[in-house]
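re: ur question from yesterday

yeah so i grabbed the chain u mentioned. its 329 aa long if i counted rite. heres the sequnce exactly as i have it in my notes:
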Amino acid sequence: MQSIRLKGLKISPPLFLAPMAGLTHSALRRLILEQGGIGLLSTEMLSAKRLPMENAALSPYLVRAPQEIPLSYQLLVSRVEEVAPAIAKLHALQAEAIDLNLGCPAPTVRRMGAGSRLMEEPASVRAIVAEARKHTDLPLTAKIRLGETLDEDKLRDFCRMLEGEGIDLLSVHARLRGEPFVRKPRWPWVGKVKGWVNIPVVANGGIFSVEDAKNCLAQSGADGLMIGRGAAISPWIFAELAHAVYGKGKEVGEVSKPALYLRFIELLEESFLPERRLGRLKEFSHYFAKNYPFGHHFASGVQSSGSVDQARERACAFFAKSEAPAGDH
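ran it thru and got these structure tokens back, copy pasting raw so excuse formatting
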């Protein structure tokens, strides 16, 4: 499938940025856009409870540049009463799509009764989705995991319920709630979900390269791919996949990683108040360091920096010492 259409929104190529706390903010989204190939951008997860009070001009979660289109806003909801005010705010922010977080396994999120905790309460989810559908004509999507245990009947009923209540697209992180990232994703289970519903199904989890993407699509038959950590490690991955998997755009040549890293710092400085920058740079650096054989030196240098200027100096010193190994592009 070369594109996905959701209520007048065309996602082409069908490559999605996964919402990630501390990472999928305006600076990373713009860096990805500059590389090309992305079909739908995403915010970090937004607390539906707090969202109506957030000042869009000041909140680091809501900073958005005009070129960040189309952008999906992900809501973390725990109670049906939170839905209508949050959606009204997203309409005011001119969201292009709204995603419901039904998959986050973080203990703090689960204690709130949100994220993956909701998959254990289908009746609550039904009420939340029905309420969301009542209040918006925007594309309404949901991000899920496979559940607590591998239970086909339970997962099938849950996915069909979501479709029945008006969800337009499902993205499936192909792991159980308790499975760590080191566990190989269960891509064939995304294929099971696709067989149960008539809406587009997007595969998420374990996609870091063109080879991963092709394997995932072969095993899942998914309508599209959602990239999370791979987008922070390689912000050019969408351009690579667009060309190699979907035949769109030009082949990605050699990427200057130092230039990309320094551009990310520039975008942080354009997007955020000074006190908001260093934490986000450290978060990104943790992933970007994986491009280098001795990346842990790079990451620890940035992590122990007391300012963005110091982090930049240490990064540049690391880049100067690091001769790019053969094939590192």
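noticed a couple things. The chain has 13 helices and ten strands. also The beta strands are 4-6, 9-11, 15-17, 41-47, 71-76, 97-101, 140-144, 169-173, 201-204, 224-227.
anyway ttyl
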